[in-house]
Each structure stands twice: as C-alpha cells, then as structure tokens.
C-alpha cells in the first residue's frame, strides 16, 4: 500500500488555495513552492522549483504545486488493472 | 543573377534500436510481445539533492538500476515508490490517479532518470510513486516523456526504435 498520508500537504494546499486566483492570473502553468503556510515563490520548471526548495529547506518536505485551473487526473491503466503483472 | 538557395536547419534525433533479451530460444517477435518495450533505467537523487548531501558530508544513496517499461497507456512516468524512498527522496506533491474504485492520491517525487545506452538524455522530472512489486520493472515511461520521442514498434522484427 502507498504510504500516502492524505493530509501530508494539507497546510500547503490551503495556502495555495488562498493564493490560487492571484497565481492563476499571473503565472498559470508555472510551479509554486509552499512550505507550511509560507509561499516561497513561483518557478518556470519543476527542476527550478525543486532546487529552490532544497536550497531553502534542505531535504525536508515542501510542496511544488503546478499552477493550474483544474487538477489533473493521471491514468495508469497497466497498474490499476493489473496488466503489468500479465504475461502472454 | 545571383542564385539563392534555401537553407534549412536540420535537427537530428539519435535513434536507438532495441531488441529485447530474455529466453534465448524465444523468437524476437514473441519475446517483444511478452516482455513489452523495455529500457534499462537508473534512478538516482536529483543533482540539487546530491549536491546538498555532498556538502553536508553525507553519503549519496546508491542509484537503483532496473527496467523501465514504455507504456503508451500511462499518462505520466512512474517509479516504484519503495525505491524512491530508499533514495531518501521526499514527496513534492500528490496527484489523483484514476482507478476502478475511484481516484486515489499518490505521492509525486522529483527524481533523476538515466537511460544508459539510449538517446534519451538524463532527465530530472516529477514522477508518480507507485506500487508495482514487479521486481525487474521499476518504472513506467508514460506519455509525458513520450511526447518528446518518436517510437516505432516493429512487431514482425521483434524490435522497437526510439528517438528523443
């Protein structure tokens, strides 16, 4: 089972929601970094956002949030249908 | 009259032909059909984290080598989550992943993927941490990466060609 903790980024996501309209207007498609309630900044690429987060917080948890109108839903059918375990 | 010639810049995409290896007596088309499009992959911490650990005098985690399955059905790249955690990576976010029982949240990690011997350069990208429990296959190459590739599946020859 995944070690996903539903509330892992709860605080960061709340901070993002508070800023979302402003971020969408100014920098849709870019990557915002949050740590707790702190907004660190917006970056062009996930790599730049990651480097900024690592420089600021070290190898500690922080959120990199793509600034998007709608949250994407990823599809990995081979995994959830168990096809990756299939063999001819 | 001076003759002018139209000059165009040409960009070359290195081509990598892959012949699956496995059971020696199996013929290539059967082998490709059974194994799928596999590439060797190395998963390691991103440069920023590696530099941080080095500056702190901490040892770098051993990179993890395995197979990546090219999966045109997957919308994103995935890596076995247990291995990402082994590399001391922490999640940088979460994403909804569709499943038969509804959407579920999976952790997203920022990691470095290297594909030795292939034209795909080392990449530092977000990947979804998943539970594959597949042993050799530790990663899926999804359409977020394939959008940069040309991919040809040659079933009768039992090979595939990828360029980036």
Write the SSE topology:
The complex is a heterodimer of chains A (88) and B (164).
Chain A: H1 10-27, E1 31-35, E2 38-43, H2 46-57, E3 63-66, E4 73-75, H3 77-80
Antiparallel strand pairs in A: 1-2, 1-3
Chain B: E1 15-18, H1 28-35, E2 38-44, H2 47-55, E3 64-70, E4 78-80, H3 81-86, E5 93-98, E6 104-114, E7 123-130, E8 137-141, H4 143-146, E9 150-154, E10 159-163
Parallel strand pairs in B: 3-8, 4-7
Antiparallel strand pairs in B: 1-10, 2-3, 2-6, 4-8, 5-6, 6-7, 9-10
Which structural class is indicated by helix and strand composition of chain A? alpha+beta
Q: What distance separates the N and C termini of chain A? A: 27 Å
Helix content of chain B: 10-25%
Strand content of chain B: 35-45%
Shape of chain B: globular
The secondary-structure element order of chain B is EHEHEEHEEEEHEE
C-alpha end-to-end distance of chain B: 42 Å
Total helical elements of chain B: 4
Mean pLDDT of chain B comes to 88
* Mean pLDDT across every amino acid position of chain A: 88
* Unreliable residue stretches of chain A: 1-5
Structural class of chain B: alpha+beta
Q: Give me the CATH fold name of the domain at 39-148 in chain B.
A: Cathepsin D, subunit A, domain 1
**Strand portion of chain A, in percent?**
15-25%
How many strands appear in the DSSP assignment of chain A? 4
CATH class call of the domain at 39-148 in chain B: Mainly Beta
Major beta sheet, strand line-up of chain A: 2-1-3
């Amino acid at each position: 089972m995944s070690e996903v903790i539903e509330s892992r980024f709860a605080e960061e996501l709340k901070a993002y929601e508070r800023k979302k309209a402003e971020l969408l207007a100014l920098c849709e498609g870019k990557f915002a970094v949050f740590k707790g309630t702190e907004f660190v900044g917006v970056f062009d690429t996930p790599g730049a956002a990651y480097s900024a987060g690592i420089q600021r917080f070290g190898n500690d948890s922080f959120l990199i949030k793509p600034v998007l109108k709608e949250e994407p839903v990823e599809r990995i059918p081979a995994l959830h249908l168990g096809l990756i375990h299939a063999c001819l | 009259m001076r003759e002018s010639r139209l000059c165009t810049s040409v960009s070359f995409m290195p081509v990598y032909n892959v012949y699956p290896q496995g059971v020696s007596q199996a013929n290539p088309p059967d082998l490709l059909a059974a194994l799928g499009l596999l590439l060797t992959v190395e998963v390691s911490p991103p440069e920023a984290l590696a530099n941080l650990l080095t500056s702190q005098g901490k040892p770098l985690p051993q990179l993890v080598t395995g197979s990546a399955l090219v999966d045109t059905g997957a919308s994103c790249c995935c890596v076995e989550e247990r291995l990402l955690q082994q590399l001391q990576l922490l999640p940088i976010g979460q994403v909804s992943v569709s499943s038969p029982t509804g959407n579920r949240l999976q952790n997203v990690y920022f990691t470095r993927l290297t594909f030795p011997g292939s034209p795909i350069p080392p990449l530092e990208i977000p990947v979804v941490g998943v539970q594959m429990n597949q042993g050799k296959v530790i990663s899926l190459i999804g359409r977020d990466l394939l959008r940069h590739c040309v991919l040809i599946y040659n079933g009768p020859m039992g090979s595939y060609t990828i360029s980036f």
